Amino acid sequence: MFDVRIMGTGKAVGSKVVSNEELEREMQLKKGWIFKSTGIKSRYYIDEEKKENALTLGVDAAKKAISDSQLELTDIDCIIGANGSPMQGVPCAASIFQREIGLEKSGIPCFDIDSTCFSFPVALFIGANLIHNNVYRNILIISSDAPSFAIKIADKKSDQYLAMEQQQL
């Protein structure tokens, strides 16, 4: 396999916690249905009042990963953005992350892997190949999504909602 290792990790989530009870009331579901169906107790949503978004969460997680790795910013020689949904078309997310973590004048390559939910594992595979083949030494992969602002309560006439409703019975 590849002669590479993960040197550090970082995580950031939205600061607003939304309980199943809140969602069940809003979606008019039976109490306890969400946990029974998914095993999830609550979710972290971004707080727009605190100006949280995919960029701020990604930067926070990246800084934590760099600290955890015990590398210096200058040790990073490539940045891969691996978001499930693109933050914008141009420039790529990786270049925006590069600017926000203080590497805007570094000249290191940045690119995105846009493979929806598979973006991070694909980026990890590609990054491992690039390191294994001595193209780069230290790649920072940033995978950041903040879909909570875009999640809408199910349309009660949709097939998905009707299927959920039938499961409650």
Give a structural overview:
There is one protein chain. The chain has 169 residues and is an alpha/beta fold. Helices cover 37% and strands 11% of the residues. It has six helices and five strands, in the order E-H-H-E-H-E-H-E-H-E-H.
Write down how many β-strands occur, each being a DSSP E stretch of 2 or more residues: 5
Largest sheet: 3 strands, parallel
Distance between the termini: 49 Å
Give the DSSP E fraction (strand runs of 2 or more residues): 5-15%
Q: Strand order within the widest sheet?
A: 4-3-5
Outline of this structure?
With 169 residues, the protein is an alpha/beta fold. It has six helices and five strands. The strands form two sheets. It has a three-stranded parallel sheet, sandwiched between helices.
List keywords for this structure.
alpha/beta; three-stranded parallel beta sheet; two-stranded antiparallel sheet; 6 helices; 5 strands; elongated
Strand-helix topology:
Elements: E1 16-19, H1 20-27, H2 33-38, E2 42-45, H3 54-69, E3 78-81, H4 93-100, E4 110-112, H5 119-132, E5 139-142, H6 159-168
Parallel strand pairs: 3-4, 3-5
Antiparallel strand pairs: 1-2
